[in-house]
Design a protein that fits this description.
two-stranded parallel ribbon; mainly alpha; about 110 residues; globular; DNA-binding
DNA sequence: GGTCTGACTAGGT
DNA sequence: AACCTAGCCAGAC
């Protein structure tokens, strides 16, 4: 599996996240057929340039916007989510029980 | 080909 | 619930 094809699989899943919902890195990895590669999801999104991929809907397992080694995008990410109606609590966390995307199982 | 790095996580305290 | 730690694993040197 090349890095490029892994990234494409990841983007394909992220594109399915509906507006107003969120998913976790681990969840995306699993759905992309890349179990235990949650970190790769973050790297793939960091390398992203295609604005059609809703990268901002991906949060960590605690419902937080993950801190970047190079800070900056976090504020935009939050603004984009709030614009879609996603609410944050007083600890900058999203209630996953309420906003987590729960895709219907796919068949071939 | 060993080492280091990191938009991650699950589990223990 | 916050904080640590160990485990994880592909990419870049």
């Amino acid at each position: 599996m090349t890095a490029a094809s892994s990234y494409e699989r990841i983007y394909a899943v992220v594109r399915r996240i509906p507006k107003g919902r969120v998913a976790t890195y681990g969840q995306i990895a699993e759905l992309a057929g890349l179990p235990r590669q949650a970190r790769q999801v973050g790297y793939a999104l960091a390398a992203l340039e295609d604005t059609r991929v809703p990268w901002h809907r991906v949060l960590n397992a605690r419902g937080e916007i993950s801190a970047r080694s190079d800070p900056g995008p976090e504020r935009l990410q939050r603004a984009l989510l709030e614009r879609e109606g996603v609410r944050f609590d007083g600890q900058d966390r999203v209630a996953l029980a309420r906003h987590l995307w729960q895709p219907r199982v796919r068949r071939r």
